[in-house]
Design brief:
The complex is a heterodimer of chains A (201) and B (487). Chain A is mainly alpha-helical. Chain A is built from seven helices and no strands. In chain A, α1 runs antiparallel to α2. Chain B contains 23 helices and no strands. Classes of the chains: A mainly alpha (201), B mainly alpha (487).
């Protein structure tokens, strides 16, 4: 349910400065998201253990989980999901188009999607600046929250970046009749990491 | 795997594509007109109901064009708020705040925990052990292989919240074996599909968590409410399988399955201990009130790590944990994008007043809870033909839930009901993801299965799910028994 229909693997970006940069970007998103996931797990477990052992858990654990780790997982994940094409979408109609039309539709759709993602990034950015100004922090434990507000624009910017990369790959590949509505089973169920398929470079 | 992709795609897809080519071109050409017209209607001073109707048309259109569902929901939602309120303030607020407010949620933090738990067990191969254990325990029976597959689905549903994951691992072993044992291809496909769908009712269930998030009901109670119907649903499927064998003996062997000596059976049944551990940790913790849902998920994930290390060794754990974490982040991102979009769309629905209008209409026509639930049933079966469960719930629950409350349907019952119906959505053509998965698994194993055979297999069991949904309409009280016992 969490993964959707899959675009056929496009021609990999030829190794170069751009490819190295994109690889670094996705590595940073993956590391940040993975670290947040581990941090969430540890925060929750430690909180419970401390609560049972000493009667009081981590002060403000709920805020750490929701305002720090959850948003980091969600927004790094949003960017990575767009890159891994693990998004949920309807495919059967566009797949029936003639190859050239489909390429045009795909590129236009990706441009529109990227534009809207940038609008969401802008919205998140404005909000993050406001909260920074206000010095937003959690009531319990006095931990700063506002720095994590910037994860929202970063996530949507990464999403837009992923769209632009897809456009570059689509245009390089040119029109094709290969159906894209067939699911890529392995990545749909997450059994093979996207890296193994050379799709995240 | 990529070679398999090619062979699998070859036989049917081009035929389908060429049949759809003309309508597809027509849709693309009509897009500027439809988008322009719906936006015009929304901003032409129409009544809130007409604005909502135009917004729904726009939403469906955008989804057909492959705009990611989450973004389509967000865009139409923000546009709708702007149109319905006549000012940009609400839409700008939504643009700035919705993403943060709907993702920085303690309730929903259980989602990555449940996903991680399932990913670890699936990727390390523990799911396969569970399947073998159930098969050894079921032994010889009418349609024995199919019934074991079905109950293995229930057992795996208690360890993982991913229907796709369950169907994938059951199908890869189950379908080739059943076909070899003389099962009709449709029967084999149908039994694997159904084995996966009931799993979403048995906790850990992502869909029930998403629902609890929208409905603002306690996640623990909502998860508990799913257990009994989840188990009963699998029992009903098993009964249907036996019935099919007796009525149409040529579809499946009258007597098959593994016959192992009891000592072997007992030994094989040890393969179920990861499920037992997770049931005790997650469900036991929730039931006893020791854990909140997120805590239960976190301890379930820790238990999974320990069990993978214990059963498969540290080598396998080291190999699987990194990719499992990464894919958990990706899967969570996919779900949260839809949740964020759904939040914006939900704000629009509140502004538009559609839920209020709907409630008034139901009250005026004197539709009671049963009539309402039947309406929802039909609505979901229709929506399910082209929408996935999560977006479907995010679009409809904010509208339907206030109505459900007004006509006296318990929100916990309503949650189980919509999740069951939502799961049917992944089975219904033309956009049933699970159908494609099973088709591809069969092709992968060189079984000449066609898409329509998979669809027909699902159709045999589909009425059971609908009938089961009807039990929730007419006798919903049993769903509240377990949540009522919780501490």
């Amino acid at each position: 349910m969490t993964a959707g229909a899959e675009r056929r693997p496009a021609a990999p970006v030829t190794p170069g400065p751009l490819a190295r940069l994109t690889r670094l970007v996705w590595l940073l998103y993956s590391v940040a998201g993975g670290a947040a996931l581990v941090a969430l797990l540890l925060t929750v477990v430690l909180d419970v253990v401390l609560r049972f052992a000493s009667g009081s858990g981590i002060e403000g654990a709920n805020d750490m989980v929701s305002s720090w780790w959850m948003v980091t997982i969600a927004f790094t994940g949003i960017a990575l999901a767009q890159r891994a094409n693990g998004r949920i979408q309807v495919d059967f109609l566009v797949d029936a188009l003639p190859a050239r039309t489909r390429l045009v539709v795909d590129v236009v759709v990706l441009l529109v999607v990227a534009g809207f993602a940038l609008a969401l990034a802008w919205g998140g950015w404005v909000e993050a600046l406001e909260q920074k100004e206000a010095g937003e922090y959690a009531a319990i434990g006095h931990r700063l929250i506002w720095p994590f507000r910037f994860v929202v624009p970063l996530g949507f910017a990464g999403f837009a970046f992923a769209c632009f990369l897809s456009i570059v790959e689509l245009v390089r590949r040119g029109p094709t009749d290969a159906p894209t509505d067939e699911l890529d089973l392995d990545s749909a169920v997450g059994l093979v990491p996207a890296d193994d398929k050379g799709r995240t470079s | 795997m990529s070679t398999v992709t090619d062979t699998a795609a070859a036989p049917e897809a081009p035929a389908r594509s060429s049949r759809l080519r003309k309508p597809a071109v027509a849709v693309v050409c009509a897009t500027p007109v439809v988008v322009g017209y719906t936006v015009f209607v929304m901003f032409s001073g129409a009544t809130p109901l007409n604005i909502a109707a135009a917004a729904f048309v726009l939403l469906i259109w955008l989804m057909f064009l492959r705009i990611p569902v989450g973004l389509a929901l967000a865009a139409v939602g923000l546009l709708g708020i702007w149109a319905a309120s006549g000012a940009t303030t609400g839409a700008v607020n939504g643009l700035q705040q919705s993403a943060w407010s709907s993702s920085s949620s303690w309730t929903l933090s259980v989602i990555p925990m449940f996903v991680l738990m399932g990913m670890l067990l699936e990727r390390s191969g523990v799911g396969g052990d569970i399947f073998r254990a159930v098969r050894a325990m079921v032994g010889k029976a009418p349609a024995g292989l199919a019934i074991s597959t079905n109950f293995a689905g229930a057992a795996m549903g208690a360890a993982s919240g991913s229907t796709l994951g369950i169907v994938y691992s059951l199908g890869r072993t189950g379908i080739p074996e059943m076909v070899r044992a003389g099962y009709d291809r449709r029967f084999a496909a149908g039994s694997v599909l159904m084995a996966g769908t009931g799993g979403q009712l048995i906790p850990p269930s992502i869909l029930l968590v998403v629902y609890a998030g929208i409905a603002q009901v306690p996640v623990g109670q909502q998860l508990m409410a799913g257990i009994l119907p989840g188990i009963l649903l699998h029992v009903a499927y098993a009964a249907m399988m036996v019935a099919i064998v007796f009525v149409r003996p040529h579809l499946a062997p009258r007597h098959d399955g593994l016959t192992l000596p009891w000592r072997e059976r007992l030994r094989a049944s040890l393969g179920l201990w990861p499920v037992a551990v997770l049931v005790v940790v997650v469900l036991g913790g929730l039931y006893q009130g020791v854990f909140t849902a997120t805590e239960a998920g976190a301890f379930g994930a820790v238990a999974s790590v320990i069990m993978v290390a214990a059963i498969k060794g540290f080598g396998v754990l080291a190999r699987t944990i990194g990719p499992a974490i990464r894919d958990t982040v990706i899967a969570s991102g996919g779900i949260f994008l839809i949740i964020i979009g759904g939040d914006m769309f939900g704000r629009f629905m509140t502004v538009s007043g559609v839920p209020r209008e709907f409630t008034t209409w139901l009250e005026r026509t004197d539709t009671g809870p049963i009539g309402f639930m039947l309406l929802v049933l039909v609505l979901y079966l229709l929506l399910g033909t082209f929408m996935d469960p999560v977006p479907m719930m995010l679009v409809t629950v904010p509208i339907l839930l206030p109505v459900a409350a007004a006509v006296g349907v318990d929100p916990l019952v309503f949650g189980v009901f919509v999740v069951l119906l939502g799961e049917l959505a992944v089975l219904t053509p033309p956009v049933g993801i699970l159908v494609f998965i099973v088709y591809r698994i069969a092709r992968d194993a060189d079984i000449p299965m066609t898409l329509s055979e998979v669809n027909r297999g699902a159709a045999w069991f589909y009425p059971i799910s609908v009938a089961f949904a009807l039990t929730m309409v007419f006798a919903p009280d049993y769903l509240l028994w377990l949540p009522g016992l919780m501490k």
